[in-house]
Automatic annotation (TrEMBL):
The keyword Disulfide bond does not apply. Transmembrane segments: none annotated. Belongs to the PlsX family. It catalyses: a fatty acyl-[ACP] + phosphate = an acyl phosphate + holo-[ACP]. This is Phosphate acyltransferase. Homodimer. Probably interacts with PlsY. The keyword DNA repair does not apply. One of its GO terms (biological process) is fatty acid biosynthetic process. It comes from the Bacteria. It comes from Desulfomicrobium baculatum (strain DSM 4028 / VKM B-1378 / X) (Desulfovibrio baculatus). Catalyzes the reversible formation of acyl-phosphate (acyl-PO(4)) from acyl-[acyl-carrier-protein] (acyl-ACP). This enzyme utilizes acyl-ACP as fatty acyl donor, but not acyl-CoA.
Length: 355
């Protein structure tokens, strides 16, 4: 990992603030060698630093006087919280002092800060949250997972174009297979949004394989799965909850008898590998694709390990110049502008409607 990478951390973000963000950030800095800018209330940050060894970590503190609340409206954060740790962290990226930003704060506010502070890549109508998820075979990209609850068909096509670049440049998949999340595999299944988006995706240059049902998300047969933010967020939270519930149920069952406990001891390494594979903390946060900069949003209830992984992910994005490839790939693909509010998207929608 290059030693000149600098990442801004919203130290006050999330449900636990510095208590989680500081140890998670320090661990990431040790593992990757990146330099940190810890943004937030300096006394609170230093108080937490006193609890952890940090002499071997390169960091600086940027003091702020405000915090973006988890329940605040994004517009209120933008207008009234200009000295919030979140806004300042994003501005550090815009100013070139940091290569990327990681926050566990209000995801809506983070998206707003990204759009109004960093700005969108030319031709992108709406940035989207992309989640890298575990499957039976390999990690896949699910997009959008919460940034855009109400979408138009052309939005989903742009999500697919952005996620396809991410899958190629970061996950190393040569020709990513792209599908759309729907209620049936057959063409024509789904609501009006998915059916219209299906038509647009089918006419694009993407390696589009059609509809993907919810039960097939974790098979690993599809590299990129596209959906609107409402459906994607439900799918993401359901998978997180199911993973936790399965782990808890498994622990309960294994403690019911002496024989099951003995079996647990034998199979303990396998159980640990299973727990690690389904733990959302192992996959960091969700990158906001479509911005002029690297920004990763973590779960509000993230633990220190999740913050560490998110910072590692951000460092990899910087090292692999993922955003540069995204900009280059999108600009090289004329469909980015064609599949928008006007142009080919409109024509294909009319064609699909039989007009």
């Amino acid at each position: 990992m290059p030693k000149d990478i600098c990442l801004a951390v919203d130290a006050m973000g999330g449900d636990f603030g510095p208590e989680i963000n500081i140890p998670g950030s320090l661990a990431a800095a040790r593992e990757t060698g990146v330099r940190l800018i810890l943004v937030g209330d300096e006394p609170s940050i230093r108080k937490e630093l006193e609890r952890h060894a940090h002499a071997d970590v390169r960091f600086e503190i940027v003091h702020t006087t405000q915090v973006a609340g988890m329940a605040e409206k994004p517009s209120d954060v933008l207008r009234r919280k200009k000295d919030s740790s979140m806004q300042v962290a994003f501005r550090l990226v815009r100013e070139g002092r940091a290569h990327g930003v990681v926050t566990a704060g209000n995801s809506g506010a983070a998206l707003a800060c990204g759009m109004f502070i960093l700005g969108r890549i030319g031709g992108v109508d709406r940035p989207a949250l992309a989640s890298i998820m575990p499957t039976l075979k390999k990690p896949i990209v699910l997009i959008d997972v919460g940034a855009n609850a109400d979408c138009k068909p052309y939005n989903l096509v742009q999500f697919g174009l952005m996620a396809e670049v991410l899958a190629r440049c970061v996950l190393g998949i040569a020709n990513p297979k792209v599908g759309i999340l729907s209620i049936g595999e057959e063409e024509g299944k789904g609501n009006s949004l998915t059916k219209d988006a299906f038509t647009l995706l089918k006419g694009s240059s993407l390696n589009f394989i059609g509809n993907v049902e919810g039960r097939d998300v974790f098979t690993g047969e599809t590299d990129v799965i596209v959906c609107d933010g409402f459906v994607g967020n439900v799918a993401l939270k359901l998978s997180e909850g199911l993973g936790s519930a399965l782990a808890s149920m498994l622990k309960t069952e294994l403690k019911k008898s002496i024989w099951s406990r003995l079996g647990t001891l034998i199979a303990l390494p396998a159980f640990k590998r299973f727990a690690k594979k389904i733990d959302y903390a192992e996959y960091g946060g969700a990158p906001i694709l479509g911005l002029n900069g690297i920004a990763i949003v973590c779960h509000g209830k993230s633990n220190a390990r999740a913050i560490t992984t998110a910072l590692q992910q951000a460092a990899i994005f910087v090292e692999k110049k993922a955003n540069d490839y995204l900009v280059e790939g999108l600009h090289a693909n004329t469909e980015l502008s064609l599949f928008s509010r006007t142009g080919k998207a409109s024509a294909l929608r009319q064609e699909a409607a039989g007009l």
